[in-house]
Amino acid sequence: MAKIVYSMLTSLDGYIARSDEDIALPVPETELHQHFNDMMRRASVVLAGRRMYETMRFWDSPDRETGATEVERDFARAWRETPKIVLSTTLRQVGPNARLVNGDAETAVRSLKSETDGLVILGGADLAAGLARAGLIDEYRLYMHPVVLGGGKPYFQSGLSLTLKPLGTESLPQDVTLMRYAPANQAA
């Protein structure tokens, strides 16, 4: 059975971006980027909504093979090699190594979870909120940058109520703190 992990960079005040067009968080430098590369390589599947998928399509570009640093080229390879499931009612097609699901997200993710082994990386606050309400997220990973955005797109959607238990913290490069949590009602 898959383990679904909602994982995003966030500001100290809980925002993953200032807006859809302005992420406003520091860009991961080599050592922090390598952490994300390693996580992508461990993933069985990436699960994303439309906006997150469209943002990440940047890594599909052949330019990522020549015009980037080695750590960025490595991430681009890992991204392209990892299967993606995109949950969207507005997209009509997706790119390489991706499958579009435009039906009921909860049903699709329940099926994915039971039919897949390993780590499933979930990105995108809107999709995560619906899956959290359905009890489908196994772990929350907040990568806290020491910056305050003052508003924007929150990691946890407004109105979402969860009781979580801490799984641990880790200090990472660029003064980022990884905070890990699981639903409190989840068996250990």
TrEMBL record:
User: Entry's Gene3D superfamilies?
Assistant: Dihydrofolate Reductase, subunit A
* Signal peptide from the UniProt entry: none
Organism from which the protein derives: Mesorhizobium jarvisii
Top-level taxonomic group = Bacteria
**Could you tell me what this protein is called?**
Dihydrofolate reductase
Q: Which Pfam families match?
A: RibD_C
Q: Its Gene Ontology biological processes?
A: riboflavin biosynthetic process
Molecular-function annotations in GO? 5-amino-6-(5-phosphoribosylamino)uracil reductase activity
